[in-house]
Task: structure prediction
Amino acid sequence: METVENICKTIQGFRRRGQYVAGDDYIIGCSEAVRRDKAVAIEAAQLYLVQGHYIKASDACHLAWCPIFEDGDASAVYTVDICDVTSVTLALLASYIGICRHGRLKSALRVAHGVYDVWLTPYLDVASSKIGDIIPAETRDNFVATARGIRFALQSPTNEMAQQGAVVSEHQLLLEFYYYKIQIVAAEQGLLEENSTKKEAADRLDVLRAWTVANGRLREAQYLAYFRTDLTNDNDEDLTILRGLLQALKGTEYPIEEAQTRLNCATCLLRSNDSASENEAQRHINIAKRLFEEEGHVFGLLDLEDMQVSEKKTIPQKELLDWKLSRADKYLQRACYQQGIKCLIFAVPVSTDMGEVFQQTQMIIERARSEIARIGGAILEQGIFINSVAQSLVRAPEYGYARKVMEDYMDDLPDEIGPKILVCLLQSLRGAYTNLGDFEKALSYAERALIITREGPNYIEVSDAAFIFAVTKTDRGLKMPRDSMLTRIWLSQTLTFLSGWVPIDRIMGYHQQEADKCCWLAYVESVMADQFADEKAYERSDQWLHAARDIRERFKITAKQLIDLEIAKATRTRDFDLAVTLTCERLRSLQSGPFTPFEIAQATTAASITTYQRSLSWLEVAASQSVEEGRAAIGDLMEAIKLASDAFHLYSVSGGSEMIVTALNWMYDLLRQLPLENSRELMKAFLVETEKIEAFCDAVRRSSASTRGAGSLLEKRGLISGSQFRSMYSNAVQSCVDLGDLRTAWLWVQKSKARALSGLFGYRALIPPNLLQTITSDENARELYEKDVMATEASLKAGPFGYLNARRQAETIRAEMRKHPQLSQILDVREGSFNVDLHEQELANATKLSNLDPKSIKYVDWFTSSTRGHKDQIVRFVRQLDGATSSQTLTMSSSSIQRWKSLNFNLPEGVVPPLRDKDGTSRLRELAPLVAGLEQVTSEGDMLVLSPSGVVNGIPLHALRLGKRTLIERNAIIYSSSAAAFRHCHMRAAGQISQISSSHAGKAALLAVYESSDGEHEERILAEQAHIYAHAEQINTDSLSFDVYTGSAVTKSLFERTSQTSSWIHYHGHAEFDRNDPLRSCLVLHSGHAPNLSDQTSPVPSCTGTANLTVSSIFSMPMLTTAPHFTVIACDSGSEDMAPGDEPLGIISALIYAGGKSVLGALWPVDSPTARIFSETFYDNLWQQIETLSREAPLDQRFVVLNLAAALRNTVIKMKGNMETKAPLHWAGYVLHGAWFHVYPLKRSSALVPREN
Result:
């Protein structure tokens, strides 16, 4: 039977030769009693640890576990095993493995501190007191003296005790080895000060290494030296250590240790960048290769090959990635998991490359993740997670996916995650929200990161986090209105905050950040000077700039922003020649160096801008002098255009959406300087590029889909509401108008509108039955469609580590679907197609059902331009379903409309609305230019689809006069936020034909609730409540029969239930529109927080009660099957919050998104009594339609089609003729969104009973 000592030596042999599979077989072949021996467990665990199989390493430790603390709790008292060096070594080894296996950093550090107090403290009395009464005093004193003697023996090879032959076991060395291993990992993860911890470890390891060499303990000396290298980041020092060890190893019984040391020497020599060292490095490589071959080392030759490739300076990135994948395969085939996984992780670049390199990088990340899952490495898993997310953060189409993954991960963080990784996650989220334009959230994450670093020991990390916080605070301030007091406050706070850090950086010797902060202070001061005409701010900016220059020169550091500030100053002082020289010199420098396309693009853009500015200065001179300057100006302009084009293409391969769009807009601004006759072809080329970039940005928008319910709508709104995105759409529209292509201009208008809402339709969109039938009959198409559904469901269920991969798989499937005509149509429907031409079967069905001539449907858009030179301008487009499009630039500006809205809508509480009094009609007449000229492109009786944008939103366009009549008296009117929403609603309405026999088809619900906490007007409220509830019963006729619910019956659950079981829902009650948080706008139901009012709603939002039906709740209500119509007789039910990208958010948009086909609501607060008159008149019109259509319908016809737009038109005409309701306030606020018709099942068995008037 083998002794424990021999077993341990055998396992060591397997480990030394990299024979992990054979070693594992040997360990498993040992009896459990043997494996429970602590010395054997240490050797087995170390074999698995070096192999990289942390699960097996952990199991090996726990099999022989002897706790050195009571109950295994490092905060509890010691056990007697604290005096046993083998037990303590096993405990430290297990703790270190616990970091690798589970990420238990803090637990391991507590164990290490406990061991230090007994075994490693220089204070004898402290050690004695720590073990207390665990062992007898005499034995305790002998233990302390012996432990101290051993430690003294290790201090120096010439130490007296060493000469006397003091016995130092390998476990004593391993005790210190793993103690410092834990210390180093804790420091690298932010729990300890990194530099001082590594310095302390390096000093102690030098002593231990010297002792082992002097005492012939060369195997132990080799692993101590390997740990020691890289700790102080001093390549020359490392080389000296390795050469000394190599000298001792030559010609000994440790050829493998010699080979490994030669490999490490070669690495240091290659890193020295000294050509003379390359020959020496090659000699080491050749000898190491021979030794590895002679000893039969399993992966030594792989290590040599991998090192040589990794240290190459000029290897192309793709070639490096290919190599790393192939090396990883070879390592993993040999069960060398640690080397294989490291090979993969260290190959991952944070690259903005959008092509083959990106795909290869993803292969590496996914391979690493699968291997990590096999061996159980939490720390490695966290590292690869950060790398994976970093790829998505720099690749614009995945911004939203990356943000979701990180937030999900943050919601369930590992218990002992290191501060450094946590700060990295927070800074990544800060970057994600900066990309999305949400600087408020970005700032909150930057602040959290700063707070965490302040609690840590590393000053550099604190200072870096402070700088990022200041940059984010600046970004937040610049999102405020330009020249506003709020902007000044935010920027002043940034200056105060950051200027306080500069002297601290100086004292701490962190001169890189000192210079960077000076540069940023100079930048912020220049912004203050520019926005607020503060000349003293320019002086302060120059002072900070001078300070940054001085730091750069004294400490020989690089401050990247310094050159930008130099250029800005030259531009400000109108020294354009210097500005052009500086930008072009920097560009040439970057082009000749190892810089990314993104960095070169930034420099190219700066060169384009300064060149253009110089061209303008030439033009100023040319106006008063010679034509020579004019030629110079044209030359500079053409050069600026060329540079702008170069920058755009560089950004296009970099993946950042904001900068791509900014570069595109800059190129357009330059092209606009050329006469149209000279730039027509360039403009066409610009539109081609814009089409590509818009599709790219749409991918960014879609990446926010399905992240957090209605919240993703807000993210999308924020993303596409950015000024650069708005300018991109506006520039495309203007280019098309200039080129005379009005049809394409209209399509660009649609692309610019309602992108978030149309995108959110996603899988809730109704797929036409005939299209589904075609797909299911094609085997290949059906298989792809089913894969897409499964991939999307998988991505929604995946956890943080699997989500990105699941989303990418879904996108890959969709790329294949795009190649199939029918499947491509499905993607168009889901993503919001912008084509409403008549050849689409869905709209053909809608017009046929409604008995409308397709030529009578006109889509009217009001587009507010944000293009330079055209800002404040409104263009109106009129489009027919056959594509014919006309446009007209209106005489009314957006600023004049804003003033009108402020005077008539933004009123103090208690002020009588102007539209209520006799002057209301004349007030609306002031807006007549918005519809002037429509008589030339539309006909009386046409169905007009009104789609306002920008400041025109919220205007009752239908109530404006066209000649002697209002528009709604001339034409039936519906509203639509975009062509995409228009299309979906009519698909839903027409689709109800197939469900005409279903239980919900003829079912209608009337919900009336009118409650208030206003005690002062209780009598009036109760009287009106009685009128409303009586009114509910009155409109419940045999032909239009409702299930009537009033008062306490009208709850949130009832509304949700009826929306899924009824095709028509009428609500009469209170509504609240919250302008600060549109998702909290709501319908006030029973037991909800009702407003304090008598007849009108309060302007103060009150939708805080959980009983109310908020917009956020409506978004999650599934009612696609019923696709009901909603009539919402409530104050502000038609009000919508409009983001700059014309993204609607309110009750109407929520009901349509959830599945409604049409919604009739009110633009402003309405009086309840006149609202009752409106609904009575509206339903009377519908009843008349039902009566007429039923009599004319053939006996076998099962339904009639009600024209809701016609019923609304007739209702308004009647109210205008009634003295009680003729004021615009009473009739102009009602608007119909969505489909203009409703499919109503016939009830042949019921008599048509006329309504009593």
Notes: Residues 213 and 248 are 7 Å apart (CA to CA).
